[in-house]
Amino acid sequence: MGRGLMKYGGIKPVMAIMAGLTLIQSIAIILQATWLAEVVSALFAGAKLQEQAGGVGLFLLAFLVRQGCGLLMQKTAYRFAEQTGRSLRRQVLAKLFELGPRFAGQEGTGNLVTLVLEGVTKFRNYLELFLPRMLATGITPVLVLAYVFTLNATSAIILMVTMPILIVFMILIGLAARKQTERQWQTYRTLSNHFVDSLRGLETLKFLGRSKTHIDSIERVSDSYRSATMRTLRVAFLSSFALDFITMLSVASVAVSLGLPLIEGRIELLPALTVLILAPEYFLPVRMVGADYHATLDGKEAGEAMEAIIGAAGEEAAKASPVPAGADLTWTPRSTLALRGIGVRHEEEGDPSLDGVNLTFSGMGRIGIIGESGAGKSTLIDVLGGFLRPTSGSFELNGCGLGDLSPERWREQITYIPQKPYIFSGTLADNIRFNKPEARPDDVLRAAEAAGLGALVASLPRGLDEPIGGGGRPLSGGQEQRVALARALLSERPVILLDEPTAHLDIETEYELKETMLPLFSGKLVILATHRLHWMREMDRIIVMERGQVAESGTHQELMARRGAYYKLATLQQEGMNA
Amino acid sequence: MKRREDWIIPYFKMYSGRFALYLLLGVLTLLAASMLMFTSGFLISKSATMPYNILLVYVPIVGVRAFGIGRAVLHYVERLVGHDAVLRILSKMRVRLYRILEPQALFIRSRYRTGDILGALADDIEQLQNVYIRTVFPSLIALVLYAAAVIALGVFDPWFALLVALYILILVAVLPYISLMLTRRADAALKRERNGLYQKLTDAVMGIGDWVISGRAADFLNDYERDEEAVLRKERKLRAWARWRAFIGQLVVGLTVVSMIYWSGGQVAAGQLNPTLIAAFVLVVFPLADAFLPVSEAVQRLPEYRESLNRLERISGGGASEEANAADAPPTGGTGGAAAAVPSAAELETAARRAHVKLERASFAYGREGPRSVDGVTLDLPQGKRVAVIGRSGAGKSTLLKLIQGALVPAAGAVTINGVPSAAYGDGIPRIISVLNQSPHLFDTTVANNIRLGRPDAEMEAIRRAAERAQLGGLLAGLPQGLETPMRETGQRFSGGERQRVALARVLLQDTPVLILDEPTVGLDPRTERELMSTIFRSTAGKTLIWVTHHLAFAEEMDEILFMEEGRVLMRGTHAELMEREPRYRNLYELDRPQW
After folding, report:
1. Mutate which of B15, B36, B37, B40 to disrupt the A interface (most A C-beta within 10 Å)?
2. What predicted TM-score, i.e. pTM, was given to this entire model?
3. Domain residues for A435?
4. Given this structure, which CATH class describes domain B346-592?
């Protein structure tokens, strides 16, 4: 399980230092036992107490060296784990930002944040535990056993035979426990989720008039959960039972096996006592591995999950096409962007989200993208914003061929307003000047006013400096859109992409927001994807999407006259219920 | 403080028998381990005296084996008993938490705005099992063994027993106390800062699209790394202390061993102690130390539980319960004699078949000083009337619904069902009014069980019919397990519209005369919205509908449309009337239905 470890930077010197320390520690363990046995057997033989100071001192010294080595080893392992954890986190975070919002959406924000924060801690914990455990298991028992051999062969054989038995038992029981857990995993998961599921559904239960009687169900399920858990634990604890049982039995056997030759005078007390003290030390490393097994497993898995993200980003980066030198990616009224056969297919088998899209955008103007959900509107916006790399086709921007639109210099041209813009935890002003942190306060205020936030700013006790977002003052959906709009205005970027900016709002807010937005669109390239038809009359050009393809495009009048896909959409929305 | 313990202490009494057994087994486990070394030491020393008969060491031989096996068996049983007891407590705690939350059910969402409070509370309960297993019992076992060891030694020599008592005191009290004092503040700060990191990163990942577009991702990463470094520095210090603490603990053990050597040697020299016991006394120190060394760590965990306990205390304590009472009888006065007129069983039966909902100049304000969320609303809903309520967020729509459901009592005016104040129906309300809101909870069980919640005694046939009426037939026919398909497993396959249909089937099975639709189509695309609404309208013929919506599509299907603003009704009438009379209405309608 440790082979993957060797790829982490700086592990070799760390391993060398720790192996040296483990060696010293093992020797100290043996010496500690020897000197303790010497003192005790001397006293047993009737030696004077005063004469034992040297032996006792040596015992204490060995004891201190042993503990000191442990301390240094932990420290070394911690340092290494800290460094490795830090570099892993840095890589993961950097890659996460490279992969962008699509990836974050797929993996889930909560999962990613937990992975980065708790996963790194677990991974560090794994390194910290695993390195010393691995070395101790490899070195200490061997040395102790060799030494015991010189003292008493019988005991050494008992110890030697026990170890493989112990390991085989542990593996067998471990497998049995896993099988048992897997077998009832489904019921187990349902039971363990039942309570939180009940709490989350409390409101619904209340509406249904079931909230009081549901208490019985919680009691019942909690009880079955306990039974199921206990069934699993009975097997799971068997592995540590076996560990205990076999080591204790082995120590007891060693003690008893030493008794007989002692009675017959075949060995002295000193070696017998030394062996007895060393017997538990022989098993200690293995017992520690058993105790930390689950912690190390967790950490190892977290490490692998993070490696997977880094790997995914590497794959993505490999696909990126180079930007030709000297390419002009800025957007001006004379610019053109052509999409040539752009296709996006998420799964090999599935239907493509975009299929052979050919479009040309030139100069400034208002472009509406309309279609039903699933028609490919959002995918198209994501491709234009550079969040998504098309799986086929190419772009031509200002006469320069590109494989995707992820280059930084293109991103600097655009602002993006999604259906639910994210409001960062910070002041209102911070949120507005997000793309342009150096903006002057009056410019921020002007942008806020233009976006229709003037009344809100005036009503806030701290005005533009009012904290909003997580932990701050909650904003309504319409206000959030206005913040995003102000952000877009302030950044003065020539291209604005909007994805369903008003679909989730109540109709009055939608109306007011539209009135604010329309005049701000002039002099920019605005690409607005929506299923709300009312926007279309204000657009210079309309692109109708259907099943990932461009069904038709033109002005409102042209498309209505043509009686094609657009006309169908329009009539469908005008018909009432009975359609 | 007192309340916090409320979640811990009572359970000791409730399960005193099991806990006593757990404690006993824990003590015996460690005693067996200690006795194994003690007897072994004695056995080989005794053997070394070369007794003429092996029978003289027979007892220690048996003892060594018995203690060896006993320790393993006892430890196994101890862990099972402990976990069983704690799982029983968890079960009780869950029920208790549920009972606390149940009365506030309709207010939790608005009261605890931030994050997933319910998930956090469920986690808190899980966290509390560590209080018992990781902190309380290891400490108690250590204390019992402490007493036993000192008393046993006292039989031989009271003064030496006192010295050993001091040594162990360092391990079980002094070191844990110092450690707790040293690290408490740092621990708390660390936890706070880690929380900060968590929020900062969540914030960044949620807004990752904006970071990418802004071209400032590197700025964020540098800034975040700086915060991580600060946390790491604190962590490093804490870990260094933990290492030193363990080292000091071991040092005390080493000193104890040396003291034991000198004492037993002295005793033997003085003829007070048999020489065969020297090895026994010296060797027993190591396994005994295993009981005392973990106490520091157990105690240092104390602050970890605090946050969980605080949260539980907040939810079960003063403030929350007062508000929960307010839900039953709000403080704004003018309750309209709600408590007096409890409807009879016959009245409830009648209302469950036909309900005439009436609001007469009903008003409500949260808090005495606050603005009125609902201000003098009058509404007459004879059985079968369909009304749409429109307004932006904060217009008072939710409060209006809660008044109708009797969850709130009007401060002025009246809300009645068949002439009886709606609040008086109490738990009978779900027989009269059902609710389909924008995110009905679908439980982690089969589709059939989810629908059955509408009427638990419903037969399979009735469930099937309800599913048909909600037009789930086609969907279910495509699933191999049909109605028995687990909801969560295929959660990805059930779309928003399909989930709403399952919830609709549940509401149809509940079969109440009045149905509240609280923005059930938010987040659905227009086609799905249209299909769902037409299913709803078709399957609820004859029911009174109160439909809160943010769109005007299908307004023409309703008998009356209410426009609310700041708690008041701004416009009302049928669709045709409003189209003719109100230019503002026409403008808005135009957005939903562009007329070309």
Report:
1. B40
2. 0.84
3. 421-492
4. alpha beta
